[in-house]
Design brief:
The mean pLDDT is about 85. It is built from eight helices and ten strands. The termini are far apart. By secondary structure, the protein is of the alpha+beta class. The chain has a four-stranded antiparallel beta sheet with strand order 4-3-6-9, covered by helices on one side. It has a three-stranded antiparallel beta sheet with strand order 1-2-5, with no helix packed on it. This is SPFH domain-containing protein.
């Protein structure tokens, strides 16, 4: 919208570079162009402001497919006014000389024209397309058809409007139909997810089985080695017992041989001692047999005296001493005197 100020009964207009201003003074075109700035009197002026920048027009409308399914089409049309004079002549772009506000709604007229044209061509395409095809290829087909239809529309060049671009954003069915259409895909995705879950579980079970088999094999190998260890310990124990028994036998044989040798030596010694004693007794007997009785009596007395307790002093009467000496064959005290 142009910027209009008042001063001393005059009006001053200053427009933007994207707005084309047409000023008629008393029916004569005095100013024509974008981004103008000039003074004028409101009583004699007729002003038109035509935007020349590109504009985006978003639209949404309903259509029906060949299988009688309602869909919603969302599209965007980019356009610009390339001929402001033609547009100002065909549409009401006049503005109030005092406020600069459009008296009509020219942009709404352009939007209605573009929307109805795009809707007409979109309906024509979707009416020959089933719902499944419209959802898959309908966007590209509708966009191409709308672009061709707008380019061939004679009212647009006559109004000075150029269509820059056409974009069909989406074609969506009703909510219930969309949910119904999503169900098979969701079921398939769920089946794929379940299959992946089952495969993961199967892999986990297989790994657990492999681990269990490895543990069992380890336990079997450990038991086999323990059995070998027990057998080896038994063999070692038997060998140790045999070695101990053999050693005990050798020790017993050595002890027996030693005792036999000792017994033989003791027997030999006893025999030698006995023989010596026998010879001594025989010699003793021979000696005693050769001596007289008095000598034997003296020896007996001597032996007896040897075995009697010690006598420090002995008093004998002369009679006893005489008799004793007489028996010994020695003269008595009286004879000796």
């Amino acid at each position: 919208m142009a910027d209009i100020t008042k001063r001393f009964g005059w009006r001053h207009l200053r427009s933007a570079p994207t707005a084309h201003i047409r000023h008629h003074n008393r029916g004569r075109l005095t100013h024509d162009g974008p981004g103008l700035s000039f003074r004028y009197r409101s009583l004699h002026a007729a002003l038109s402001e035509v935007p020349i920048n590109e504009r985006e027009l978003a639209m949404a409308f309903h259509a029906r497919t060949s299988d009688f399914q309602d869909v919603t089409v969302q599209a965007t049309v980019t356009y610009r006014i390339s001929d402001p004079a033609e547009a100002a002549a065909r549409l009401d772009f006049s503005v109030d000389p005092d406020t600069g506000v459009w008296r009509g709604a020219p942009l709404e007229q352009i939007a209605t024209l573009l929307t109805e044209t795009a809707q007409q061509h979109t309906l024509d395409v979707l009416a020959r397309t089933p719902l499944a095809g419209a959802l898959v290829d309908g966007v590209a087909a509708a966009q191409e058809r709308v672009a061709e239809g707008l380019a061939a529309e004679p009212r647009l060049p006559a109004t000075g409007i150029d269509v820059v671009a056409v974009r069909v954003v989406a074609i969506r069915p009703e909510a219930e139909v969309e949910r119904a259409l999503r169900t098979p895909a969701r079921e398939q995705i769920q089946q794929e997810a379940d299959r992946a879950t089952y495969e993961r579980r199967a892999v986990a079970v297989e790994r657990e089985r492999t681990i269990a088999e490895n543990e069992l094999a380890s336990q079997i190998e450990l038991a086999r080695r323990e059995e070998q260890l027990v057998e080896q310990r038994g063999t070692n124990t038997r060998r140790e017992a045999e070695e101990n028994a053999a050693a005990d036998g050798v020790r017993a044989e050595a002890e027996a041989a030693r005792k036999v040798r000792l017994a033989r030596a003791e027997a030999e010694a006893a025999r030698a001692v006995g023989a010596a004693r026998a010879e001594s007794q025989a010699a003793w007997l021979r000696v005693h047999g050769e001596v007289n009785a008095s000598t034997l009596h003296a020896l007996a007395a001597t032996r007896l005296a040897e075995n009697l307790p010690r006598i420090d002093s002995l008093t004998l009467s002369p009679d006893v001493l005489t008799d004793l000496l007489a028996k010994l064959g020695r003269p008595g005290p009286e004879t000796r005197a």
